[in-house]
Design a protein that fits this description.
Elements: E1 11-17, H1 21-29, E2 37-43, E3 50-54, E4 57-61, H2 63-66, E5 69-73
Antiparallel strand pairs: 1-2, 1-5, 2-3, 3-4
Amino acid sequence: MTLDQLPLGRQAIITQVGGTGPLRLRLLDMGLIPRTELEVHKAAPMGDPIEITLRGYSLTLRLEDARSVEVAPL
């Protein structure tokens, strides 16, 4: 399952970060590292972007970028 498919309020653990080049590096720099727990908190009215909480801070991601992050629900 990818991060963009995770329902609101659900917790998950990152299993893999995909993407290529600058996109992958940007995701890793933002703390989206395998074996990190996260929770989807909010979504914009049209569903894009989403807000997640990980490592003690909130992060807003576009759905396009969230599709590059594989997660496993907890």
